[in-house]
Amino acid sequence: MPEPSDTSSPAADRAESFFASRLTRGNMIFPTEISVSPVRVLKIKRSWFSSDEESISISHVASVRIKTGIFFSDIWIESSGGTNQIFSHGHSKGDAQAIKSTIEEHQRSFNGGRGTPAAEGTKRCPYCAETIKAEAKVCRYCNRELV
């Protein structure tokens, strides 16, 4: 069940927190928390004397992968750089889907409603749909002449 985060930044006011089940391995005493805000995805794993935090900026989230089991799900949140993926296990299936949809919603609002950010001075090739320079006369991917 999502719970509001208690941080003081204005962007974090809309953050949603999801906790792993205490019935899963490694989460009995200190369950893993995934917090999704319009700015970042944050994983917090607490222990007796310390806390381990990992975060990825919403603009750098490349994909969210969910592996569902009978009762619980594992979640991988991968960054666009290929490193620093966030992994968490023991979330309910509903929470896992909610985490994924919340991240996708924040990415859409971050990109101004577009699916992916378009770079200045680019366009899509009408034949192969690859992104090319706006001034291009020939597509560098499919070698077709552009009209």
Number of domains: 2
Rg (CA only): 19 Å
Mean pLDDT: 84
* Structural class by SSE content: mainly beta
| Helix-strand pattern | EEEEEEEEHEE
| Main CATH class of the largest domain | Mainly Beta
Helix content: 10-25%
Terminal CA distance: 53 Å
Q: What best-fitting shape do the alpha-carbon axes yield? A: elongated
Biggest sheet character: 5 strands, antiparallel
Count every helix, treating DSSP H or I runs of 4 or more residues as helices. Answer: 1
Known CATH architecture of the largest domain: Roll
Q: Tell me the name of the CATH homologous superfamily of the largest domain.
A: Pleckstrin-homology domain (PH domain)/Phosphotyrosine-binding domain (PTB)
CATH topology-level name of the largest domain:
PH-domain like
Work out the strand percent: 35-45%
Spatial arrangement of strands, main beta sheet: 1-2-3-4-5
Stretches where pLDDT is under 50 for at least 5 consecutive residues are 1-12
Count of beta strands: 10
Provide an overview of this structure.
The chain is mainly β and 147 residues long. The chain folds into 2 domains: 3-110, PH-domain like; 118-147, no CATH class. It is built from 1 helix and 10 strands. Strands 1-2-3-4-5 form a 5-stranded antiparallel beta sheet, covered by helices on one side. The chain starts with a strand and ends in a 14-residue tail after the last strand. The model is unreliable at 1-12 (pLDDT under 50).
